[in-house]
Amino acid sequence: MGSKPSQRVLVVDDEESILELLKYNLEKQGYEVKTALDGEKAIGIARKFQPDLILLDIMMPKQDGVETCRQIREIPELAQTFIIFLTARSEEYSEVAAFDVGADDYITKPIKPRALMSRINALFRRDKKKKSVSNQISFGDMVIDRSSYTIRMKDEEITLPKKEFELLYFLAQNPNKVFGRDELLQNIWGSDVYVLARTVDVHVRKVREKIGDEYIKTVKGVGYKFNAA
Length: 229
Description:
This protein is an alpha/beta fold. 41% of the residues lie in helices and 21% in strands. It has two domains: 8-130, Response regulator (Rossmann fold, 3-Layer(aba) Sandwich); 133-226, Arc Repressor Mutant, subunit A, CATH 1.10.10.10. It has helices at residues 16-28, 39-49, 65-72, 92-100, 113-131, 162-173, 181-189, 198-211, and strands at residues 8-12, 32-36, 53-57, 82-87, 105-108, 136-139, 142-145, 150-153, 156-159, 216-219, 223-226.
């Protein structure tokens, strides 16, 4: 039995054999695990269980994984939960849809347990490293609080999903410096997660919808910068 990482994982898939396989391998690593056979049940369990990570199948009865992810991302207390899609579909539009609704990673089946465990462990290690430098960044009326993944603007508090927050925080740490999409992918998603360059554009759009257009500026043909002027 591995040492207890103390993280909680929710596995959602309509195939019981996959649930059993993943539950066995995760518990062997020391994770606390719960399972669900469809998206509707997963949301109810997630509210109570408060998982640190959700492994989510896309093709499921009643409610697919994309819609389930979208609803989970609307629950403030699950804003920091990692979501990894597991799917037999490898079409680009499925991957784009996954990241559009807030996925952190996208892994195609068949699942290789050892490789998956390695990806999960790496994800938590990076998260722990980032949290070890927890602090705040202030610009005028805006306070970006890394410890709570919240943005305070005057009297309003805004909670961002993990990757949207990390994108904003990274740019704000480097005010007025322009970053290309590839640089942002490397710094926010890491080299061991394959995501499309369009994912950066989607996340920038979502951040702008919540905090306004004046903070993250597009530098045409180059990338994005945090406007601290």
